[in-house]
Amino acid sequence: MLGQQKTWMDIRHLQTMVWMMIGLIQSGLISLMAWTPYVHGRARYCQSLIRRFRRWLDNERIDVHALYGPLIADAMAQWGEGTIYLALDTSMLWDKYCVIRISIIYRGRAIPLIWEVIEHASSQVSYESYKTLLNMAATLLPRNCRVVFLADRGFADTNLMKHLKKLEWHWRIRIKGSFWIYRKGFDRIKAGRIHLAPGQAFFWHGISVTGKCYGPVHMAIARRHDAKDSWIVLNDEPTDITTFKEYGLRFDIEENFLDDKSNGFQLESSLIRSIGSLTRLCFVLAMTTLYLVCQATLCTHLGPLAPASGGEG
Prior knowledge:
Elements: H1 11-27, H2 32-35, H3 46-58, H4 64-79, E1 83-93, E2 97-106, E3 109-119, H5 127-138, E4 146-151, H6 158-167, E5 170-174, E6 180-182, E7 189-190, E8 201-209, E9 214-222, E10 231-235, H7 242-248, H8 251-260, H9 275-302
Parallel strand pairs: 1-4, 4-5
Antiparallel strand pairs: 1-2, 2-3, 5-10, 6-7, 6-8, 8-9, 9-10
Helix pairs in contact: 1-9, 3-9, 4-9, 5-6
């Protein structure tokens, strides 16, 4: 799978990558030591293998996006989805590094599309921190596909909305209650002051938001029976009840980060503390996730295996 692309500078980089993926799958952990039992080779000591992995992670000649981009682009083309849902989110590591990631929502999973690791003490990042990632992501998507972009309240920024419009992407972005809402013929109101009874929903079209009066946009607001807070979701398209279902797909990227961390591979237990090495480690995670999803998709298409002749099902 990895060898389909001819962009590897050195075949040894590819071989090491494969062993790291195998170690990650077999051990279920991000631990250079835990990967070593699964490597077949001439190295006699674990320390030799660990040094090999460490050199790979520290190697600045390995351009992860140049290597990963063609593979994820090819996967998306084969999946043949008419609409592609993308989700943007961040995750903190040791209160020092922030992983910014745009993922593809596919069959209940979130598969990394593009990412960046920055030294930042908060998961709240500015538009300037991820605008380049948006442009990079756009180059990887199949032509003529419909894109719907999903983001939580921390990314509610009119600069982002303008950028998405230039990319010709649709979007569903949750906003904070502090957002000013402007409707023709009504006084302005803060989104959080819109009163809803439990189970009630409103759909407002052709409104403007913030002090900049950005618009026209469309809003869906609802309050669940068992919730104190409301969901307030802005759209670039007219809203209805399906808006909440679409926005809810965003939670798959949170599960993706949990898979990387406490619910899965234990990323935070690694001893890696540099931006470059963490970026390449995220490449290993992304490739492993893509590989496993591709295998699962293939199994789904093939269906259940037939029982062996004369044997039990």
